[in-house]
Amino acid sequence: MVGGGATDGAAARGTTGTAGAAGAARAAGFRGTGLGRVLWAPVSGRTWREFGYLLLSLPLSTVYFSLAITGLSLGAGLLVTFLGVPVLAGVLLMCRGFGRVERARVRGLLGASVAAPGPVRARKGGALGAMGALLGSGSAWRHALYAVVWFPWAVFAFCLALVLWSCAWSLLLYPLWFWVFPAYTDQPGLQLFQNGDYTLHLDSSAEITLSFLAGLVLTLAVPWVFRALTAVDRLLVAGLLGPSRLDHRVTELESDRGVVVDTAAADLRRIERDLHDGAQARLAALAMDLGLAKEKLQEDPQAAARMVDEAHGEVKLALRELRDLARGIHPAVLTDRGLDAALSAVAARCPVPVRVAVDLPERPAAAIEGIAYFTVSELLQNIGKHSRARTAGVDVWKSGDRLLIQVTDDGRGGASAGGGTGTGDTGLAGLSERLDAVDGVLVVDSPAGGGTTVTAELPWRTR
């Protein structure tokens, strides 16, 4: 009997837990709908975090504005002496500290991640070099501008947010607290205005209901006002306290430089491996065979002749490997006759029939021409190894200030430039990085079973 009761209790708790989970799932699903988001917004965590952000903005902006204006004015006034330089540098350093606080506040309360600008690099050592770097730093002056410009906006946003929030919740909850006026004051309700002998109080049932409805509308609208106000703050922080376009460009160039260095190192290792395992090994074997043939020349001329004949074959193979290696470094036909002839030669070596069409008004710069050649060469290698295609095509043309390359095949598809698990994906990912290093773009369209189209864009530069 006791065991049966325990079993029934466990079953009841399991049923209750299942029902609670189902109810939570239904509530989450309702909040995910359009109407649910509107009704849930006034009490959501995001709204209260944004409200807290707007309330904190006023005291912080007041401190930033006061210190920045005072410091900048003092530094500018003291520029007639040397004291103005360290004062201005100190103010700019202080404003960078303000920016660090604001980026953390935006990240914590608004959920927006703004990257910090690059560090201030001094060209010369010592205090003078550091001060000169600060005074010449565009990001430091943007931080100072933020401290000045943000203050009036923060005052406006604070006042609007506080007034709307107070009015909305006061009117929404007015039916619960309007009794305070007749109970503790000599007024029948909340006084809206007074004009001579006429006074308007919210005391009747209709007026209380209307105030409740007005408060409901305001309460539902306030979260979206908060979102609009904080959106401006996000723009200010991202535009003035984040990295500039120049910083982004420097970061991209540093990354691209790393890719170029890694690619050059990989090419050098490949060339060394090909020489060591190919032509060098053949030449070493050839030297040994010729030495043996020289020793047998007097005692067995026929055997020596056969060994010389074999060595001659090895020389031909070594020469062919050296030609292939030289072609892989930079083909002579590309230098002498341009992309049309060089790509036709690559297409002739591909096991898949390839149509080549090159329509260029003139030859591009040698570096761009070389990258275009090796891009097509690697793509045709992928087609020959992985695509199972019957035919392929290569089109090269100029569009505006871009050199466009399109390589297509009718193979199995499924390729990706994201470095995934598909065959040849790693090669496409590396190729995409190489093109990105020269401001190029690689786009792969390869539905499974639908063939592959790879489009590459390179900047057009003339010789």
Describe this structure in words.
With 463 residues, the chain is an alpha+beta fold. It has four domains: 1-29; 46-241, no CATH class; 246-328, Single alpha-helices involved in coiled-coils or other helix-helix interfaces; 339-459, Heat Shock Protein 90 (2-Layer Sandwich). Helices cover 69% and strands 10% of the residues. It has 15 helices and seven strands. It has helices at residues 2-31, 34-40, 45-77, 84-110, 126-135, 138-172, 174-177, 180-184, 205-241, 245-296, 301-329, 332-337, 339-349, 366-387, 425-436; strands spanning 190-195, 198-202, 354-359, 392-399, 402-409, 441-445, 452-459. The strands form two sheets. It has a five-stranded mixed beta sheet. The chain has a two-stranded antiparallel sheet with strand order 1-2.
SSE-based structural type:
alpha+beta
Total number of helical segments? 15
- Give, in spatial order, the strands making up the sheet with the most strands: 3-4-5-7-6
Secondary-structure element order, N to C: HHHHHHHHEEHHHHHEHEEHEE
Percentage of β-strand residues: 5-15%
Number of strands: 7
User: What gross morphology would you assign?
Assistant: elongated
